[in-house]
Amino acid sequence: MNKELRRVSLVIMLMFVALFVSTSVIQVFAVDSLRADEHNVRVLYESYSTERGAITVDGVPIVTSEPVDDNYSYLRVYSQAELYAPVTGFISLNHGSSGVERALNEELSGTSNAQFLDQLNALFTGQKPKGASVELTLDPVVQQAAWDALADNSGAIVAIEPSTGRILAMVSKTSFDPNQLAAHEANTIIDQRYDELLANPNKPLINRAITGDLYHPGSVFKIVMTAAALQGGDYTPDSEFPNPGQLQLPQTDVFISNAEGGACGGGETATIATALRLSCNIPFAQLGAAMGEDRIRGMAESFGFGQSVSIPMASTPSIYPEGMDAPQLMLSSFGQFDDKVTPLQVAMVSAAIANGGVLMKPTLIDTVTSPDLRVIDQFEPEVFSTPVSPEVSATMVQMLVNGVSNGAASNARISGVDVAGKTGTAENGEGEPYTLWFTGFAPADNPQVAIAVVIENGAPNAFGNKVAAPIAKKVLEAVLSR
Amino acid sequence: MTSPTSSVVDAAPRPPLTGTIRLRLRAPSRLRNLELLLLLGACAINAAAILLVQLGAIGHPDWSLATLGIGLSVLVLAMHVALRVVASDADPFLLPIATVLNGLGIAMIYRLDLAKGFEGWDMASIRQIAWTSIALVLAIAVIVLLRNHRVLYRFRLTFALAGIVLLVIPVFFRPVNGANIWVQLGPFSFQPGEIGKIALAVFFAGFLVTARDSLSMIGRKVLWMTFPRARDLGPLLVVFAASMGVLVFQKDLGTALLYFGLFLVMLYVATGRSSWILLGLGLFLGGAFAASRVLSYVGGRIDAWLEPFARANYEGNGGSYQLVQGLFGLSNGGLTGTGLGLGRPDITPLAESDYIVASLGEELGLVGLFAILALYLLFVSRGFRIGFAGQDDFGRLLAVGLAFVVGLQVFIVIGGVTRVIPLTGLTTPFLAAGGSSLVANWMIVALLLRLSDSVRHQPRTVIE
Questions:
Q1: Contact by Cβ (8 Å): A352, A358
Q2: A12–B324 CB contact, under 8 Å
Q3: Which of A7, A29, A42, A50 has the most B C-beta neighbours within 10 Å, making it the best mutation to test the interface with B?
């Protein structure tokens, strides 16, 4: 009997060894993958159990966590929800998060490396751990002015302080109410709201200022063209091009014309300065053909085309196409064909010209402050690139001032202040609404703000100067009257 | 037993012999003193666990449970005193192990009650405390009344009948959660199968001691193994059929596995023939395969075991939701646990009964689970020790059977929770909420204590 007993003991032993192994695997080795599983609500509850830090604008909280008596301990509350929603984004129980809520999740939830010691301290002192608060660079007055100026239009506004890269306003319409998604309600209710927002043709969940389907830049791309021409040294504002009323694209029977019809300002030839001031297409088409796509792309990329900018949400890279044939190159030279940009990118182009040719890295984050008011992260201005020389920049400032004072962007004029600017009206194909642009900066001699305004539902007879320039003017005035 | 007196020692004229006597006479009280020490430690651990639960879950101590806790401690100490009087040579580890496991279980059930906001008799922990006291009283009664375990041998057929009745009764009652293993009378519900496993262990031990000669001596040799004659296969087939009956009519995978495993191991230990194991495993695998094909709930359990994270299994009715939540809970605990009262074990369904191990693993961590597993292992090994040291084969078989059934049940439950085997609904001995399980396992403690006392009590030479 003892031999059998020994064997059965061995079996019992093996069974327990299996249990020791299985529990070790689950509780030590598989922890990361189990925590990462989408069904693991414990991780979610845990993330809600710490008081998430506030998001503030000019010291005033616009997103806060209010204690509530349910599984999640804290409810995220968004005040002035729609105004700031594209920037703050949302955080939800079952549809993830977006915007600053997502990009700065570690700081807001207190799990960033910089906050590790705080968490450890809280563990030993028995205090409830708390996340850091985040102060945005947005200026509430400018933000509100941009929101109001955009009125019922679908589109976006980005305003940047050229000398630092601080984003003063970022508005995207149609917006949404993040409180709807942050509510602690049954998954099915949140699902339904989320699906409705997704299905909405106005795409309220998309922050058009930095992402989405991007827009044709139209004539605002001529700033990049001019920069490419002047920076090379072989062109000046007075370089001349033939000035026909119509131009047949090579290898096709397509004719292009200037926006106003007819020649560009009269005369046998048109200068680059005139073409930029009056926003003529034909001279730029010829300039593009003369420079070639590589030279233009070089300038576009030094303005930020082709790369994602972390503000800290990642922007969608703007596109200058590759491998174009002659007619495509000419079309793309006045912002048509496959040129695609974000409003942020356009604002960056203006900001670089405004700042003496130095492009500062744009950002939304001013400071990250721990609950005990220790500054974890403080914004420092950072050079992004230097697309043009100070001389070219100075020349272009004057050209763009002329565009407003005596050219196609006349509706952005502000009395007593020199405004530099460029309008754009991009076609999106037969029957599609126009994309209407204004970009510029003011005051021209000491720029405090660079702006990009885009309206995506422009009527067929609308153009940038009529719709976008007056909107931009209101925002510029808001900055100048601070 | 008489306690040692100084006169016995002092009056001894022959030093060598006196030395031996002194040892023998002192041994019992030394065992009991060790038990008392361990028991006080166990009660302290339990009190600390309850206190930690309160601090973790509600932030301050709540003394309302103190009276009940002291009451239970008094009952456990009463059992200790009873052992001093009627079974002074009994194993000193069994009672403290059962006590600390039972107490940890109550602490965790209480913690889950707090999370769910139950009060009064709605609290599973209050019912668990009541059942623990009933179980302790019954265990004391067994220890006091059953002075000689061989009495059980005489009533082996009665136990067989009792086992069968206990097994069959639930069929006449309403199923709970799909399984037909409950008897509900008014507000009380009971799982007779838990008690049934003891009755069957007694019967198996009695039957095998009688029948083992015919089961082990005669047979045909195939290769290196001797296989039993067809007519001797009867008992195995009957138990197999009964287990499959449990599987089909009561829809209880765990119990079926437990009964069959118990019989198979006892049969093997009694006869010493590995061919029984081979035959039994063959039958079991065949039966399990057939069941997985024919019975949808068995197939579902196996699918959930193999692919718990697959959407169809996770969201399916009777799928892997509970299994996966248990895994999340365990991983949430990690190495050291969240601390008592600080995790979220209440998210997992049946966290206080079938899934109490996952709950404890979440809040006490891998460290805590290892400690609990080590306690079970020690408990089972103390039972096997009786099997090794015992003199009468009935007692040895019974001890091994009872110890093995605890070990197997632990393996089936925790193995199910941790994906070693498919999940089946069994209670974790001593820990899980449930009166019948508590009563049954405290009976096992009482029987093992009685058996261990008999082992030490009798001079070897008298029996063999």
A1: yes
A2: no
A3: A42
Catalytic positions of A, written as ranges: 219
Q: What is the pTM of this model?
A: 0.67
SS3 B219: coil
B124 touches chain A (CB under 8 A): no
Instruction: Please answer whether residues B78 and B135 qualify as being in contact, where contact means their C-beta atoms are separated by less than 8 angstroms.
Output: no
pLDDT tens, A422-455? 998 888 887 788 889 999 998 999 999 999 999 9
CB A157 within 8 A of CB A451: yes
Look at phi and psi of residue B58 and say left if phi exceeds 0, alpha if psi is from -120 to 50, else beta: alpha
For residue B186, how far is the Cα from the chain centroid? 27
Nearest residue in A to B394, CA atom = A1
B330 and A26: CB-CB below 8 Å? yes
- Indicate the residue of B270, B344, B408 with minimum beta-carbon distance to A45: B344
The CATH label, of 3.20.20.70, 3.40.710.10, 1.10.10.10, 4.10.520.10, for the domain at A218-364+380-480 is: 3.40.710.10
Q: Residue B80 belongs to what H/E stretch?
A: helix B66-86
- Rounded Cα distance between B460 and B464, Å, is 7
Distance separating alpha carbons of residues B148 and B383, to the nearest angstrom: 17
Q: Which helix (H) or strand (E) holds B417?
A: helix B393-417
A42 to chain B: which residues are within 8 Å by CB?
Answer: 328-329, 332, 343-344, 347
DSSP H helices in A255-389 = 272-278, 281-291, 293-302, 326-332, 343-354
Say which of A13, A27, A46 has its CB closest to residue B333. A27
pLDDT in tens, A272-322: 888 888 888 888 888 998 998 999 999 999 999 999 999 889 999 999 999
